[in-house]
Fold each of these.
Amino acid sequence: MKTWLIFWYGIFKNNPTFRLVLGLCPTLAVTTSIENAVGMGCAATFVLVCSNGLVSLLRKLIPDAVHIPCYIVIIAAFVTTVDLLMQAYLPALSDSLGIFIPLIVVNCIILGRAEAFASKNPLIPSLVDGLGSGVGFTLALVLIGAIRQFVGTYITIAILPAGGFIVFGLVLALFNRLGEWNARRKGDLPPMPVNLDCRHCTMCPNGK
């Protein structure tokens, strides 16, 4: 696959939030403002790119029996790095994001890209894959954060936890509708709506 297509897929076709429906905990928790959304997105992108790159470089050296623990150690190292950097240079943002920065370690987007792509591909495509997925995740967070912040100035529920679920559900429905419209415009069968279960995740090699 061409490099630019890998990047494009990460942002749109396989967007972690709106197409794969992954990483919903930070998506719903930190998108009360655009600032928080950008901060979380940049942190996750940094970890995605760095962990993808290192996993790709070590893919032939890591035994299959322990590859998942090894990936988690690699991801944890980069999460610790970004956490310490944010505490040192962006303390207000670090305090605002709180526990969700350390929890990037268990973010299924990052582990999923390491397992499904970086462990099977050379360095440059793996870096591009991580960047595309990170940018797609960031854009999704910013979109939800912008809606919640704007609506929250008039309707308080938008910045409450329930508001996160409502906004996410509406935007996800819009993405499904746009996908159906685009398919019909091209004369194709409309895609199945995004399902909130692992069976329909295209991240895994055996996904549908």
Amino acid sequence: MLTDTDRFAATLAERGLPPLRRRRPTTLQVNLGKVCNQACRHCHVDAGPTRTESMQAATVERVLALLAHDTHLTTLDVTGGAPELNPHFRTLVSGARRLERRVIDRCNLTVLSEPGQEDTAEFLAAHQVHVVASLPCYTAENVDAQRGGGAFAGSVAGLRRLNALGYGAAEGGDALPGADQPLRLDLVYNPLGPSLPPEQGALEADYRVRLAADLGVRFDRLLCLANMPIHRFADDLARQGRLDSYVDQLRDAFNPEALDGLMCRDLVSIDHDGTLADCDFNQMLGLPLGGRPRSIFDIESLSSLQDDAIATASHCLGCTAGQGSSCGGALGGASSAP
């Protein structure tokens, strides 16, 4: 098992690099809970159908109040679990859009076929929500191995439904008639096991060809994410005796060029109960914002968080390995791995 040593902080110190500090936040990432229709092997949230944690109405209203107050927050990034299963999902999304904020929905695609979600795709399109959808491979065998039997077929059905509404034509395309902007549909890739993602541009080209030729599906961008050594994925590696070696692999591939683009520099994460964290991964490990427990009910504005220290731990090496990794995909720059 991993020790409590912060190998990320040690790596920065070894290279004479300063600890991380936050810039003025521009993105508010909100985890609506751990309820999900899937239980994926790589899930850092440990989400699943038996989980009950879910953001309540009062917390959603407080999130919207912060968005209204802090005009520098340009993006609301909604995640879970399956965020669409939260009963207040539409209140949050529609409220943020009325405030003219960009909204991202991190969707697992199969949720669009769940009972009660029959019009969710149409809701997303009507509110011009940017959909970021998990599809860890373009073959059924690999997707079902990571996400469960039938996940690939359900994902493809979701993609086709979104395509039919106009999603996936933003890259080089035009907005739909009456729309302010194209409907963006990005896909997320992460490796099946303890390895770094391949180069994002080349893999995106492969995805584009295979999905179009084999399935008639289109998308805008592919986002490559490294698997973070926490929770379900870390437990699986620990059982195999491979957890420490994976963290060593991430450390050996440390890329200082990725530091400037780390999501924690411009993002604040909110748990389903309103607890603040520096990122979604820290949130799941119970690492509070800057190392000091705080809630959205304790602060008047997120502007006050500018220049704060960012809490780190060994898993942060996953965001700086190779081409770098964030909620927006690869961060660019060459790996410093030998």
Amino acid sequence: MSALSVNHLLGIKEVSTDDIKLILETANQFKEVINRPIKKVPTLRDITIANLFFENSTRTRLSFELAEKRLSADVINFSASSSSVSKGETLVDTVNNILSMKVDMVVMRHPNPGAGVFLSKQIDATIVNAGDGAHEHPTQALLDAYSIKEKLGDLQGVRVAIIGDVLHSRVALSNIFCLQKLGAEVMVCGPATLLPKYISSLGVHVEYNLDKALAWCDVANMLRVQHERQDIKYFPSVREYTMQYGLTMDRLNALNKEIVVMHPGPINRGVEITTEVADSHQSIILRQVENGVAVRMAVLYLLSQ
């Protein structure tokens, strides 16, 4: 098996198409591992990984931790809210303290865009970006691409609509880069206030009408409205947002085709997507969660080579 061309996974923008394909191929092998009766392999037995989460996370943190344990790595979990960071310790100090415990790899989520890049220049350990502000979330994009490929067989020419709060989403940017590198067409759809001004310069289609976006796409990736990152009101009310941009069974049934429904989670049920849609046969949301472990195993394995 060949190696990645990068030493860190800081963002999809920095990795090549070959790197992405290698990660997805390797994830296939790990998917088979996690479906065995004994789900563990000794691959990273001598590696110590620190999970540094400076922002709250449930699914991503658990997914990385499970991936690390499935690979037999030693795992240190660090949560900023219960640490010296809240007492004013700097990012570099925190990490240097952890590295002095002989850590090989750092999985980090941080509220500031570029935190992973900054850290990779300061310390001698492999960095995996688990989300930096509203910038990138590379492993989410990889697991989304893997899930679409698994469902549809290929990404070449597939039309993917990313719908909702694109402005505050790190998932959207990573997905756009990843999908385009794999030959998919991408559209973003949402209220004008929630679409970044620069977005059309990334070579994506821009649509403000949900029904038109659904008629165009093969895959709808529904983003969560991120109230916690919104410092002003971007739309009149949640009810109005739901009426215009909420995905319902009525909307899906009005299409003359079946589309694949995705969501990076956590879901605001009844806001961007109804429970009926989230739990329908068109939804691959739980498959995304399962695939997340296999894809993160692949990333950790390949970066450790």
Amino acid sequence: MTISVQDLESSADYIVSVQADDGSIPWFADGIVDPWNHVEAAMGLTVAGRFDAARRAYQWLAESQLEDGSWLASYRDGHVCDGTRAETNFVAYAATGIWHYFQVTGDRRFLGEYWTVADAAMHFVLDLQSPYGDIYWALDTRTGINKDALVTGCSSIYKSLECMANLAFEVERNPQPWVAARAILGTALRDRPERFDRTWPSKARYSMDWFYPVLTGVVEGEAARARIDARWHEFVEPGHGCRCVSDQPWVTVAETCELTLALLAANRRTVAQDVFDWLRPYRSRDGGWWTGFALRDGIVWPEEQPTWTAGAVLLAADALSNHTSASRLFTAVDLLPHQHAERARARRRFE
């Protein structure tokens, strides 16, 4: 059964119902807030046209940003819940959300106000980029920089750097530092696998390590399709969704939505629609979406409805329907500085 417009409207209602008075969006009522999932839920609100609620979410980001441009791992009830670290992919995702909001609304006042938030955040992130291009996972507030890197986290940052370059272009600032950082990060992700998972067990068993390089534009075209095909049967349970971890009988709604986006990026639209439609049974009556489904037991598990899962559903639905002008954000690379340079070169050829 196809997911309906009414289902998606109620998903936005659900996110709004959980949003706190200060604008933060916890995972669920009385849950924690972390910067990445907060932005994911805020983008869902933007897709659904809940612009006031989305702006309040970004205002919370601005008000809770630290002097170094970062946010800590998690918050609860207006206070730091986990202050042990600032994770680079969490911090970078603010630029993705701010660019997404501007793409949808064209609100230049918002762009001018929140450019400084994105700029400070991404400077923090690039301060943790290694000479090889990978970006260190986190700044530990007790021990300093954790000098290892994650494929999924760095892939997410790769998309955030695209968004950051576009933000800079729109506010007439120099986008080249972000373009250059993105380029060497992409080279590390494609050609330097030894730079990742150096000090902890490999994360290759997680589905996000499989499809995030496609979702974020690190790998494109035939290479993207080959990457998807290579491990499809390890992660995909037909009729149910995408496993979070290859060796665990558990599919999750958020990963299935992100796989939907990766399939669209790989030009597999029909399959993407089919995969997305598998999710309909996981919607709850109040508009939220269950985290996942335990295949062996045949039950939803855990019995939680994260706001970021609802946000992921809304982003995937937008990508499939082209509902907003940001619908291609996660399915295509759209680097404005490169486009501008190419147009300039074309004009010179005809002058």
